[in-house]
Amino acid sequence: MTPESQTPPERSPRARDAARVLPLLGLFLLMPPVITLFAVPLHVAGVPLIVVYLFGVWLALVLGAALLGRAMQPRAPTPPDGCSPPS
Amino acid sequence: MLSAKLILPVALLYVALLFGVAFVGDQRARAGRLGWLQSPVVYTLSISIYCSSWTFYGAVGHAARSGLEFATIYIGPSLVFVGWWVVLRKLVRIGHVHGVTSIADMISSRYGKSAPLAALVTLVAVVAIAPYIALQLRAVTTTFQVIGSAGPEDPSGLPSAAPDFRVAIWVAVGMAVFTILFGTRNVDAKEQHHGVVAAIALEAVVKLVALVTVGALVVFGLSDGIADSFARATPEMLLTPDGFGERWVAVTLLSAIAAVCLPRQFQITVVENADERHLRTASWLFPLYLLLITLFVVPIAAGGLSLLPKGSNPDMFVLTLPMWAGHNDIALLAFLGGFSSATSMVIVACIALSTMISNHLVMPLAMRFKWVPQNASGEVRRFLLVTRRCGICVMLALGFLYFRLSGTSDALASIGLIAFAGVAQFAPALLGGLFWRGANAGGAIAGLAAGSALWAYTLVLPSFGGGVVPAEMMQNGPFGLTLLEPHALFGLSGLDPLVHSLFWSLSTNTLLYVVVSLLRQPRPIERLQSTLFVDVFRAPAEATSGLIRRTAAAEDLSVLAQRILGVEEATRFFERAARDQGLEHAPPVADDAFISQLERKLASSIGAASARAVISEAVAVEIISLDDLMKIADETRRMAEHSRELEEKSRQLEAAATQLRDANTRLTRLDQEKDDFLSQVSHEVRTPMTSIRSFSQILLETKALEPASAQRFVQIIHDESVRLTRLLDSTLDLSLLERGEAHWPRSRIDPEAALESSIRVCQGLDGMRVPLLSEARATGVAVEANEDRLCQVFINLISNAIKYNTNGKPRVTIRSSVRDGLYEVLISDNGPGIPLQERSQIFSRFVRNWTRPRTVASGSGLGLAISWQIMRHLGGSLEFVTTEGPGACFRVTLSALAAMDRDTQGDAPAHEKGGR
Fold first, then answer.
1. What is the pLDDT of residues B758-802, one digit of tens each?
2. Is the peptide bond prior to B462 cis by the omega test (within 30 degrees of 0)?
3. Taking the CA atoms of chain B, what radius of gyration do you get in angstroms?
4. B23: which residues sit within 8 A by CB, 6+ positions away?
5. pLDDT of residue B468
6. Among B289, B636, B646, B695, whose CB has the most other CB atoms within 10 angstroms?
């Protein structure tokens, strides 16, 4: 009665592990002391480096989540268990 | 210049549009045509009620005051959604499986459906969210006044005039009407509010478009592109010295928690979720929404600071910048965006809180004091709807009251953060309960109570300002107790007030939660619920019905269901249950599964704690099977060991199969032997019996028999009887030996003496026909044995050697020696020997010697078998020795106790010789 036997195998079990790690990576990059490395008066095409870094990491997280979400999609559409609203 | 005459119709039109969308959404849902209403995009857009007017106006104000810190409020939720797999997925699954109606319901369900805990969560939520609603009311009121009254020459926004509370009242009433109309149509709180969701999804689009438009205006209209707009930002604004310190971390953590624990977020993300898979889309789309909505915050703040006159209210930059630039259309759009963000937040927050108030505060009291008529069916349902509607009004009234009481100086951001810190007190109990089985209600109540008290004392109380809290108390603590100073509790000074409050409240909360949970033994229902929640992905909900055994009269349950659900719905539910049980036109059987089903159904209306309470009244006996519970709890460990066990099992199975095969072979052989033995015994018994019968018959029937013949016949009968007796004795003997039941006294004896006497007996047996030659003999040996039995073995072997010797010059040789502590006797003859193929069987029963001389004195056929068993019992052995020459040779071996000096001849006792 393993959950694996109930739902079809996902495309990659590594994607699941990555999905667990991704928020931690984001936390690491956006928290001090890492973020303080970019809090310097430099500009990238007129935009302060810190702003570029902050939104860059953010966008990378969005892309990562989107890609992982696709990778974790089950091969066959499955009826989610227990999702029917109790009418 | 926008006049109030234009603003009001536009605002009303927009509200009418929202009503229309909500109405259409509801109608479509009722007709079952959900379509886009249940798409992941609509789900994600509805989650964006996280961005209230605090975001719409407050983020810019926050950025103008504290630089990039505003971003943390959106980074936290982004990280939570990016990491949806860990927490959100589990919450949503539990929400579906257990029909959770609110965060209070969720927490109380997890801790054994505890009613006090649900009430406590509700109270804390009401206290925390009332200021938040006040914030929205103030934002709408202020913007109304700003956009309606302020001209381009005075675009500084408030506080130029006191807030117009008449506007605030009308706004509050309008929101209450909308919420009551679309939020309380159904008593089943688990049923999705499709109309509301459709409306707030539209509002989510409006606020995003509005903010991006204002941003584009600032960047491309008022500045010369992106670089220019950032050039307006002072370096101090973006690179404050302690910009990435304790507050950065604390606010990120706080907003991450709030994205889950805010009642309205929980309502939308968990309760209104229609399909678990929608989370997959929301996991990236919601962070993207947050990113887009915050993208222009820094340029707008920088533009406002540099372009607008000094002293302008930064919280109004989104509105005042377009007005200052003369873009009234964009200002109007911004107003609608702010209006949208405020209304959507208030509507969902009110729905969530009114459900909590009615289910967890009013309902338990109503049940206790019998406020609801006991016999009227559907009365509870009506009562619930009324309390929900009252709850909505109460929340808006509380918000208005807070708005009225509190000063107007507070920045939007600080009020919002106070609410965040309040709901963050739910985090230890909520998140701990998802992963830690041992957590129990005692710990959750203790932690939550202490944490909320500290939060209220260190953050809420000071927020009222001088009017409510004396400055003296803020400075030196109450009654001059400096240790209790609200912003420097126990002397912890120098911290930001928010960080200070978070530190004390969350650490105390978590500590008490853990310690009390460890100290207190959970009740069975708590253990049951903790297992169901923690293992929600492993244990199916149906497993519950087997764990909790209850009996109730179906009639009582029917009355109960009708009271709460109304006749129509209760009847429908009972009929469907009966159909599922395969019963037509009969009430369903009130078995465990049905009672659990009914409890879940009632819980979706009145919450798990109240549902359990009313069911318990109707239930006669309740037993929670802890054994079964342990089995489910062990499932986790079992899963991990599963594959290893499988391997182990297959190995064991293989071994067992081998053993079985061996055993089968052995059994078959034994069976065969037993059959052989029986037939042999029958045969052996039959031969003498036949002679006895025939000769006695002759004696009986032949009258004139010669006396000599008669004498001979009687002699034969006698001999045969003796043989028969001997045979039976031997058989008995052997069976005793084989079963190990033979016990003889053993003593220290001289085996040579036994051998000598055996030889003497055998010499008498058959005259001197066969010479017995004694060759080399051991001397002075002692063994531990039974002398009689040892003699029996020797006699058997020697007599066999004599009896079956067919040699013309028969001869039997006897030798004995001591070698390596073993005493051995070799008895050999020069007879025909034993054919090779029979050698392996000679010690088996009834295998008589190679040739069978038919003499009366011939043995029973058990002699060798008995001898072999005797030697085994004595601890020695009897073997057949392969020799070069003709004849057979047997060896008897026994362990010697003490070997005499080899050279010493004589008859002295062994121990005396050894003593010399």
1. 888 787 766 556 777 778 888 888 888 888 888 888 888 888 888
2. no
3. 51
4. B182, B195
5. 63
6. B289
Evaluate whether B325 touches B217 at the Cβ level (below 8 Å): yes
End-to-end CA distance of chain A: 28
Q: Which of A55, A69, A82 sits opposite B97 (nearest CB)?
A: A82
**Domain spanning B4-427: which CATH class is it, in words?**
mainly alpha
B300 touches chain A (CB under 8 A): no
Decide: residue B4, CB within 10 A, 0-12 exposed, 13-18 middle, 19+ buried: exposed
In this structure, is residue A79 part of a structural domain? Answer: no
Count of pairs with CB atoms under 8 A, one residue in A, one in B: 132
- What value, to the nearest 5°, has the Cα angle with vertex B266 and ends B261 and B268? 150
Contact B889, B880 (CB under 8 A): yes
CATH fold label, B634-738? Helix Hairpins (1.10.287)
ipTM of this model? 0.81
Q: Angle CA(B845)–CA(B849)–CA(B854) in degrees, nearest 5?
A: 105
Angle between helix axes B59-66 and B412-423 (nearest 10 degrees) is: 100
- The model carries a pTM of 0.68
pLDDT value for B157: 47
Residues forming beta bridges with residue A47, ordered by sequence position? A44
Q: B191 at the A interface (CB within 8 A)?
A: yes
d(CA B17, CA B12): 9
Q: How far is CA B167 from the centre of its chain?
A: 54
| Cβ–Cβ below 8 Å for B295 and A55 | yes
Q: What is the second-level CATH architecture of the domain B747-915? A: 2-Layer Sandwich (3.30)
What DSSP assignment string belongs to B736-778?
A: HHHTT------EEE-HHHHHHHHHHHHHHHTTTSS-EEE-S--
Q: A-chain residues within 8 Å CB-CB of B275?
A: 80, 83
* The pair of three-digit structure tokens given for residue B758, joined into one six-digit string: 């055996």
